[in-house]
Design goal:
Elements lengths: L1 H13 L5 H25 L4 H24 L1 H4 L9 H21 L7 H22 L1 H9 L4 H24 L10 H23 L9 H19 L17 H19 L4 H30 L9 H13 L6 E8 L2 H8 L1 H18 L5 E6 L2 E6 L4 H16 L2 E3 L2 E3 L3 E8 L6 H18 L3 E3 L2 H22 L3 E10 L5 E12 L3 E3 L5 H6 L3 H21 L5 E5 L2 H4 L4 H11 L7 E5 L1 H5 L2 H13 L3 E7 L8 H4 L4 E4 L1 H4 L6 H16 L3 E4 L5 H10 L3 E2 L8 E2 H11 L16
Parallel strand pairs: 6-7, 9-11, 11-12, 12-13, 13-14, 14-15, 15-16
Antiparallel strand pairs: 1-3, 1-6, 2-3, 4-5, 8-9, 8-16, 8-17, 9-10
Helix pairs in contact: 1-2, 2-3, 2-10, 3-5, 3-10, 5-8, 6-8, 6-11, 6-12, 8-9, 9-10, 11-12, 14-15, 15-16, 17-18, 22-24
Bound molecules: ligand C2E and magnesium ion (2 copies).
The site of ligand C2E has 24 residues, from β9, α20 and β13.
Length: about 750
């Protein structure tokens, strides 16, 4: 900054004329300091790194060219004219494609459906501006007409033209931005306009052969570079890509200005003499401006039928095109496949919408690859896609659905994060199950839910599914009522120390006391709660109840830590730690009275976010257990990385340890793994004395399972503890209660 100010003041003070200290040393130092800032921005940049890198390269090319211009040409010091083509021109010219790459990178996403209008608007703007430029540069163009134009004049003329073309492109893109979008481009446009001004002054000066380095025009270039550097620097902090909206009125600004400029030039041409080039450019502008009127209908048609994100046909296009397929020769069989990604909401919530969008784009690409030229593929919205398979019987549809499932199961790489996903596909058949798309959609939708709840990947509609669909909706309504009317109850299952038999805590397990269907296990409603977005509410209800119980135990002088299961979708709420803190405070409980059982899939998502939330919970004294340990498919690196207190080894590993030596050694080594990492090991699903003893021998810390006790309603749980007395659990002679 200091350097910059010194240079500007010295430059102004010095007046015109090249000075080796001011224009050479100070000027160059100032420019290189700005280049340094740009490259520091590259180092800092995260999401926008590629574009910042291109921008820094463009600025470097410009400054390198300046440096050569000033130092490498000896005749400059003598104050000679500079208007021959030099190596510097290569640097100056390189600036434009490099900056163009930065812009292209910046706009590369989501531009699919607006690409053509952006192009056309930018072209109208660029031609209009060039027409005005041709008028302004009249002396140069006229003199070039007298004698053949030298390459150096042509290049000099090109600079302001390129500047304006870039300005028009940026303005064209920026005008399509969704409201509230990025305002940073104003810096870039201003910088380029300063370049244009300086370049015009340069060309005019060069025409009369008097341009000398060391005038205040240099300051205009310098300020242009400064604004570009500020833009680059601001870009480095951007995380979100640009979002574009079609049909914005602002999008018309650029073509309107371009058209007005062209009209002005043509009108001027009727009054004074202007170069023919200006007239040609102005006329071209008007022709281009009129082009959308000609293509308007087609463009509108295309835009309204295209999904903006993926470029696929949208729901409207599917509804428009399907009837023709159904009408075709002799009612050829077709199959409608409705595809919905599993747990897409979690990806969106934990990794951000940007990653979610990238996932959808890649899913669209894979789907396209699986399908034939006569099949229709459309994105219906969100994570829902539809495929109308041409000439397809039930069996063909099922095997195609399986192939799609397989193709989607492969890893996706999204901005450096590798991710797996799966999809549920519902199938409805034309003409046997319906002859119009609306009916087939409804049936495919019901089949899709069947596939989703049954985890079967795909399912062909069957008349029974009608009933299931209705049933599902009813259950959802009832679940909402259950949350409102306090129908959820908790059962508690003890975790005992294998060393001493003392009860160390209890896991709270939710049940639904359904007014007609009786006590329902969590398996019958948790998936529904998750899918319908009720899970977060459910978790808060369970937490409230479990902590009420912990407060009662504390009041009865038998304090016990209560463990609550939290699904990934609740944990990604950044205010979750604060909510927990206030729930604890309201009941006068310490953080240590709560254990949160989380599953590995939460840890699999955004690691930084997981660490931040878990650390905040830990800071409040809350303990973290990894539930169903060993069943997730995440890497174990999180164990080293994240604040975790307990591993709960999944039942499926514990059940077979008596009969299967390999299962036994797996458990034994997992116990030492946990201890090596200073974690507590809890075995779930302990159903027999033999397993209990074996686990004790392996040094496992705690056990939970039917052998010790089934999950019990709070009052029965208290009785069970009373019966144990001070000796703790010594073997199952106590209780075999009613709960499942
Ligand atoms: P989980 O957290 O792994 O809970 C242990 C499950 O294993 C419980 O099933 C428990 O009844 C069962 N279990 C305990 N000991 C034994 C045994 O010795 N043998 C066998 N075969 N099973 C045993 P439950 O209560 O049906 O819960 C199933 C799952 O539902 C839980 O697995 C947990 O993931 C989820 N869940 C339960 N309550 C909640 C809740 O409040 N919120 C959330 N998000 N999930 C919950
Ligand atoms: Mg659990
Ligand atoms: Mg478990």
């Amino acid at each position: 900054m200091l350097l910059l100010c010194t240079y500007v003041i010295s430059r102004l003070a010095h007046g015109n004329g090249y000075d080796p200290t001011v224009d050479g040393l100070l000027g160059m130092l100032a420019e290189w300091s700005m280049v340094t800032v740009a490259w520091l921005a590259v180092r800092r940049a995260t999401a926008a790194r590629a574009e910042v890198c291109w921008a820094a390269a463009a600025i470097s090319a410009q400054v390198l060219a300046d440096t050569y211009y000033v130092f490498a040409r000896e005749d400059l010091t003598a104050g000679a004219s500079t208007n021959a083509v030099t190596i510097s021109d290569i640097g100056y010219l390189l600036f434009y494609p490099l900056l163009f790459c930065a812009l292209a990178q910046r706009a590369r996403r989501r531009l699919v459906s607006v690409a053509f209008p952006v192009f056309l608007n930018s072209a109208v703007g660029a031609f209009g501006a060039s027409a005005v430029l041709a008028v302004v540069l009249q002396p140069v163009i006229e003199s070039a007409r007298q004698e053949p134009m030298g390459l150096s004049t042509a290049i000099a003329l090109a600079y302001p033209l390129f500047d304006l073309v870039l300005v028009a492109i940026i303005a064209g893109i920026a005008a399509f931005q969704a409201s509230g979008g990025d305002r940073l481009w104003i810096l870039l446009v201003s910088g380029l306009l300063l370049f244009t001004t300086a370049d015009v002054l340069y060309v005019l000066a060069e025409a009369t052969d008097v341009y000398l380095i060391g005038t205040n025009v240099d300051l205009v270039w310098g300020s242009g570079i400064l604004l570009l550097v500020l833009w680059t620097d601001g870009l480095a902090d951007r995380r979100e890509p640009l979002v574009f909206e079609t049909g914005r009125n602002e999008a018309l600004t650029v073509p309107i200005i371009g058209t007005l400029a062209a009209l002005f030039v043509l009108l001027l041409g009727t009054q004074i003499h202007i170069p023919l080039l200006a007239l040609v450019l102005a006329s071209t502008t008007l022709v281009l401006a009129a082009a959308p009127l000609v293509f308007r209908q087609r463009m509108l048609h295309r835009i309204t039928r295209t999904d903006e994100l993926t470029g696929l046909p949208n729901r409207r296009a599917l509804y428009a095109d399907a009837p023709a397929k159904f009408k075709g020769r002799a009612r050829k069989p077709h199959a409608l496949l409705l595809l919905d990604l599993d747990r897409f909401k979690e990806v969106n919530d934990s990794l951000g919408h940007d990653v979610g969008d990238l996932l959808l784009m890649q899913v669209a690409a894979r789907l396209r690859r699986e399908l034939g030229p006569n099949d229709l593929l459309a994105r219906l919205g969100g994570d829902e896609f539809a495929v109308l398979l041409d000439d397809s019987e039930s069996a063909d549809a099922v095997s195609k659905a399986a192939a799609i499932g397989e193709s989607l199961a492969g890893q996706f790489m999204l901005e450096g994060i590798s991710l797996q996903t799966s999809a549920s596909i519902g199938i409805a058949l034309f003409p046997s199950q319906g002859t119009d798309l609306r009916l087939l959609m409804r049936k495919a939708d019901m089949a899709m839910y069947k596939a989703k709840t049954g985890h079967t990947g795909n399912h062909v509609y069957h008349s029974e599914d009608d009933h299931h669909g209705g049933q599902r909706l009813r259950t959802l309504q009832e679940l909402r009522e259950a949350l409102r009317d306090d129908q959820l109850v908790l059962h508690y299952q003890p975790k005992v120390s294998l060393d001493t038999g003392q009860v160390q805590g209890a896991e709270a397990l939710v049940r639904w006391n359904h007014p007609e269907r009786g006590l329902l296990p969590p398996a019958s409603f948790l998936a529904l709660a998750e899918e319908s977005g009720l899970m977060h509410e459910l978790t808060l209800v369970v937490l409230g109840k479990a902590l009420d119980q912990a407060a009662q135990w504390q009041a009865a002088q038998t304090p016990l830590a209560v463990a609550v299961n939290v699904s990934a979708s609740s944990l990604i709420d950044t205010s979750f730690p604060d909510k927990i803190e206030s729930l604890l405070k309201q009941r006068g409980l310490a953080g240590a009275s709560l254990v949160l059982e989380i599953t590995e899939d939460f840890l699999m998502g955004d690691r930084d976010r997981a660490r931040s939330i878990l650390t905040q919970l830990r800071d409040r004294g809350v303990q973290i257990a990894v539930d169903d340990f060993g069943t997730g498919y995440s890497s174990l690196s999180y164990l080293r990385d994240l604040p975790i207190d307990e591993l709960k080894l999944d039942q499926s590993f514990v059940f077979p340890i008596i009969d299967d030596p390999r299962a036994a050694s797996l458990v034994a080594s997992t116990v030492s793994l946990a201890h090596g990492l200073d974690l507590r090991m809890v075995a779930e699903g302990v159903e027999s004395r033999a397993v209990y003893d074996q686990l004790t021998a392996y040094g496992c810390d705690r056990a939970q399972g039917f052998y010790i006790s089934r999950p019990l309603p709070a009052d029965e749980f208290d009785q069970w503890i009373d019966l144990l007395g001070t000796a703790g659990f010594t073997g199952n002679r106590v209780h075999q209660p009613t709960d499942s």
